[in-house]
Amino acid sequence: MRVTVDRDRCAGSGMCALTAPEVFEQDGEGLGTAPDPSSWAEHAEAAAEAAGLCPVGAITVSTGH
Amino acid sequence: MSETIPTVAGMPAERAPGCPFSPPPELSRLAEESPIVRSVFTDGHEGYLVTGYALAREVLADNRRFSSRQELMHHPTIDFREQFGDEIPPGLAGDLTALDEPEHGRLRRMLTGRFTVRRMRMLTERIEEVTAVHLDLMAEQGPPVDLVTAFAQPIPTMLICELLGVPYDERDMFRGHVENVFGGDASMEERMASFSALGEYNAALVAAKRANPTDDLLSDLTDSEMTPEEHGGIATLLLAAGLDTTASMLALGVLALLERPEQAAIMRDDPEAVPGAVEELMRYLSIASPIPRVTLEEVELGGQVIPAGTTLMVAVNVANRDDARFADPGALDLRRHAAGHLAFGHGVHQCLGQQLARVEMRVAFPALLRRFPDLRLAGEAVTRASDASIHGLTSMPVAWGE
User: Does A55 touch chain B (CB under 8 A)?
Assistant: First the structure.
């Protein structure tokens, strides 16, 4: 599983850090990051919800192996 | 070939008497008929109203085809071309809401780091203190109290002033101007005059901060790449948005909860439910007026072929009551999963201050209901004029105790 945030698209709304704080945080510029791959699988559902709520569609959650 | 859809004149804004929470009934009726409606604007422009959730989200998400530049737009009920001719002025410097990329992103990125979830949560303790101070003042004053001026307005006002570094003791002056701009009761001349006065006030404030920085957000922006004009414009935008929107949510939200004691009990007694409850109040009340966009090219939307240069009004209030997205949408249900509502907008322009608003509401609603468990309406709550940019209350008498 892989979680990525497109920083060029990110608008810094914080929806990801609000929705799935275990997976996402905001950096100093307020842009979303998913810094800890070990958190992804356990919180896959929340990460997927955050991807759906992202106002600019900047988050990709892929479940391939 | 475009499908046949209803046509309406302008933008229905009149709310039903005694229904301060519901969108204008005509707009709701149109939304039931079609997710997109043709509208003949006052200046003759053939625009559209977007009323369905999915289409609203699609338009707001697509800033490449749907522009925010006001100089390209038509207003549904005001003929600005009568006043300005064909040269509608662009938004003022620093007005992010009227910019497209890359100009919008350039300015927004200087601000987003200041409004993160984490930074706003760090304000929780201060928000609790400010709330407690105002609840104490209410208790000292004794019932009846006007909840708008005693609670809903001062809490967000004090917090945004502290955050930005705007003198709180000058609040009556800028509050009055913000009320004129957003409230809907002022004439167009008064609105324009207040808008100018706010701009001048913030230009002077920002000039002072640039000369002698203090420990606050507006001073910190001095180090950014903003021009002084953009800096002043952003101060106006942040101050006005921070004052007025959360205040409206708090006042209308309390009114809605007082009418539904079983919902108020959830907000009062179940701390785990509070974050979700705030989202549902946001969805249910949807206080923002429709969001304008203008097509930059011919687009196909909801079965309509829409030419370039067409203004669309995205009615988030009815979109948030689309039963294709939210079951039983007319019911206030604080236990529902309301995430995904469009009350903060959607897309690159989604509300910059939303995380501050959330923390303020998460603190203030339960604190009020715990302090005054028998809080009740003690007269008539007066709503803003129907053409207010931000829906809300002008007064709301409340009482408690014997």
Answer: yes
